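Can't paste images in this forum, so I'm doing it all in text. The chain is below; anyone willing to post the predicted structure tokens underneath?
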Amino acid sequence: MPRSVNHVASRARRKKILKLTRGYYGCRRNVWTVAKNTWEKGLTYAYRDRKNKKRNFRALWIQRINAAARLEDLSYSKLMGLIHKSGIEINRKVLADLAMNNPAAFKAVVEKVKNA
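Text version of the structure:
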């Protein structure tokens, strides 16, 4: 009796990956083994860069806070130390947004921290 192979399932599995690699350059889009390897490698890059994105945004917020704090004659580390010591619960994302879009509010936060 001949060997039975489920070509429908294996073809569907391959088509699914090849559909995901549409838009890639050259053999990476239509040669099964190359496309599969490229797609899997892309998933590892995506996982890694989701972590790096958070790291990059935090660095950007710190730079913005530091630039605004320097205008108020404080360094970033002194400002953050004073904020924590005074018990103000404000994160870097919000503080950076205040520094960029609402300098008056940022200045008010700095004055409150300096006087506390």
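The CA atoms of residues 69 and 75 lie 6 Å apart. The longest helix spans residues 32-71.
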